Amino acid sequence: MEDAMVAADPAGDPQTTSYWSPPFNLPLISAFLAFAIAQFLKLFTTWYKEKRWDSKKVIDSGGMPSSHSATVTALAVTIGLQEGTGGPAFAIAIVVACVVCTLQPVVMYDASGVRQHAGRQAELLNQIVCEFPPEHPLSNVRPLRDSLGHTPIQVVAGALLGCIIAYLLRSSH
Q1: Is the pTM for the entire model greater than 0.90?
Q2: Which secondary-structure segment (H or E) carries 167?
Q3: In angstroms, rounded to a whole number, what is the distance separating the alpha carbons of residues 165 and 156?
Q4: Measuring CA to CA, how many Å separate 40 from each of 61, 66, 98, 159?
Q5: CA distance 76 to 73
Q6: Alpha helices per DSSP H over 9-141
Q7: Are 157 and 64 in contact (CB under 8 A)?
Q8: What is the pLDDT along the chain (173 residues), one digit of tens a residue?
């Protein structure tokens, strides 16, 4: 199979040979870039808060900013800027953003509600286990993850990051 495609003019005559390149999808690039930047920023926000570098934060859930909020907000804003707000793609992106972010009523109940409370419970349970004497059978149990969800500020920060990424990418093209 040939690596090149032949372009034709409206009359059907071949004019030039151009190489195939993948389609450029600005909303997809914007969403993935927002996710990656949000995850990368967690290194610095963890250092600022805890005064230590923790490379695991790049792949962990929870923390500042919310990469989920950044991703879906960047997607929705980029679609809105590129195609307008009247189309079905924007409607789908907004519904997904509403489910993932804490900014709207249907919002990420999971991230800022249930998971946040589960994280607090894990933190308390870890403290209790640390107070067990060394001979207790549960004294050597691996600690529970206590960074499960997001605070509303982390979700808002992720959403703002998503908006910024969408606007910067939009203005660069």
Answers
A1: no
A2: helix 152-172
A3: 14
A4: 12, 11, 24, 15
A5: 5
A6: 26-50, 67-83, 88-100, 109, 115-130
A7: yes
A8: 444 444 444 555 555 556 766 678 999 999 999 999 999 998 888 878 778 777 777 677 777 888 888 999 999 999 999 999 999 999 999 888 887 765 443 444 555 566 667 777 777 887 887 787 888 777 777 777 666 567 778 888 999 999 999 999 987 76
